[in-house]
């Protein structure tokens, strides 16, 4: 199965008024869900201004992933303390380095998701997402 955009797109998408802690908690909820299911072994967090373009790029460069899950979309011009810095915060929170394992006490024994990001820099973006594979 090739990487697909989860449907409905709004399944895990948070409302526009949500703050960073709630966004990170939503990421944690998504990771816990897929951690409990067989067949998933890693995750990647990202941010983009064009979900469809980024999906097509990931389909070519990250074929091992199954789902692209939008978590939060910001409307308007990003502000300096806004959502644009969330990718870096999520990277520091969930995987300070490539290969870090995410687990949870309620997950089946031995189950982990491996953090698969390799960099922390990106230009201003509007949609925060997670890839699950």
| N to C succession of SSEs | EHEHEHEEE
Shape, per Cα inertia axes: globular
- Strand arrangement, largest sheet? 1-3-6-2-5-4
Q: Rg to the nearest angstrom? A: 14 Å
CA-CA gap between termini: 10 Å
Poorly predicted sequence stretches spanning 5 or more consecutive residues: none
How many H/I helices?
A: 3
Structural class: alpha/beta
The residue-averaged pLDDT reads: 81
The residue fraction in helices comes out at 25-40%
How many strand segments?
6
| Strand residue content | 15-25%
The largest sheet is: 6 strands, mixed
What can you see in these coordinates?
- The longest helix is centred in the N-terminal third of the chain and has 16 residues, at 20-35.
- The N and C termini lie close together (10 Å).
- The chain is globular.
- The mean pLDDT is 81.
- The chain has 133 residues and is of the alpha/beta class.
- It has helices at 20-35, 51-61, 86-94; strands spanning 4-5, 42-48, 67-73, 101-102, 113-115, 127-132.
- The protein has a six-stranded mixed beta sheet, with helices on both faces.
- The protein is 27% helix and 20% strand.
